[in-house]
Amino acid sequence: MTDGANLQWAVDGLPRAARTLRSTRTGTLAGINRTGFYSKKSPNGTVREGPYQHLAEDFVRRLKALHEAGTLPDPRDAQIARLKAEIDALRQRAARQSEAIEKLSEFKILALSRIAAQHEEIIRQRSPQAASGTPTGARLAAVPRGGQTIGSCS
Length: 154
Fold this sequence. Notes:
- The protein is mainly α and about 150 residues long.
- About 65% of the residues lie in helices and about 5% in strands.
- The protein has six helices and two strands.
- It has helices spanning about 5-10, 25-30, 55-70, 75-125, 130, 135-140; strands at about 40, 45-50.
- Strands 1-2 form a two-stranded antiparallel sheet.
């Protein structure tokens, strides 16, 4: 295969998502020096076309036509679209998590207030004042003395 055929194969075989002519990659695939894609200026000021410049121009023209037709997605545009979709998904996830956190915080406040109310009720019911209206000392004095003793106490 000649260098031109190698280059044409390399240009045709570039990834479909190429944005511009990747002269280094194309030249590497074709096995030629990338400077062949560009025109050269001689010391006397004349411009000489590179041996493969016509292929580079053809590649750029075909790539531009594909972009305009919308059949060739740009990898950067595709990446931007993918990242935007990912950002939207993450924002929705963050919103759902914020909503869940808010609901859980409300539940926590409600649960703590109920626990505090239950604790107050338990304390109130355990207090000696709650069993009867009489003070503690009066209730102890009201215990009957005498009667049958059980055990060795006399």
